[in-house]
Amino acid sequence: MKFLLLRHAESLSKQAARARFDADRPLSTRGREHAKRVGQMLGPLGCLPHPIVCSPFVRTQETAAIVNQQLPAPVPLLPLTILAPGSGSDELLRAALNHADATNRWLLAVLHEPDLSLILGTWLYGGASYPFPVLEGDLFVVRIQFARGQARGELLAYYSPQQLAKD
Predict the structure, then answer these.
(1) CATH code (residue 121)
(2) Nearest partner of 116 among 106, 105, 130, judged by Cα
(3) pLDDT digits over 52-64, tens only?
(4) What DSSP string describes 102-118?
(5) Which helix (H) or strand (E) is 86 found in, with range?
(6) Are the beta carbons of 138 and 160 closer than 8 angstroms?
(7) Domain residues for 35?
(8) What domain count does the chain have?
(9) Residue 154, pLDDT score
(10) What secondary structure does DSSP assign to 128-140, as a single string?
């Protein structure tokens, strides 16, 4: 299985967004630009997703939609409650098994932190903690293989719009 794991882009605080609930926080202007950059680089990487899955929170849905707009052709975008904050590798694998394209395409999952760090730690480090901070808008290109009932991952690429940003 091939995954594109993306932490949602920078969002506004509840106060700045005047949001009543954390789930309703939208992306910031900078976050929208970062999501656009991520979407623009997927084609040149040869990692076009089908489909895109995300948490039902506004910031993940906005990130996913902006990335989707940058693709050569839009793909299905599926907000899944199973990927709400607190999800882990089992929930992501379940989402992939239920929704991923069987033609060996990439599944893009837009997730929250610390969930993404825990998934990366599980897949790349056998359950140990992922040793680096996962910033808003960070993208991880991961291939998963199964052996003895365990998912083991290989990190193929990492991209951070925050580190490459000119703003």
Answers:
(1) 3.40.50.1240
(2) 130
(3) 999 999 999 999 9
(4) TTT-EEEEEE-TTHHHH
(5) none
(6) yes
(7) 2-164
(8) 1
(9) 96
(10) SPPSS---TT-EE
Res 104: pLDDT: 74
> What pLDDT is stored for residue 166 in this prediction?
56
Given CA atoms 131, 81, 60, 46 in this order, what sign does their dihedral have? positive
Average of per-residue pLDDT across 92-96: 95
- Amino acid letter, residue 108: L
Q: Which residues contact 90 (CB under 8 A, 6 or more apart)?
A: none
| CB 85, CB 21: distance < 8 Å | no
Q: How far apart are the first and last CA of the chain?
A: 35
- Cβ burial, residue 49 (10 Å; 0-12/13-18/19+): buried
* Residue 114 scores a pLDDT above 70: yes
Q: Which residue has the tokens 């991923």?
A: 100
Predicted TM-score (pTM) of the model is: 0.94
> 39 near 69, Cβ under 8 Å?
yes
Cβ within 8 Å of residue 116, ≥6 positions away: 5, 7, 134, 138, 140
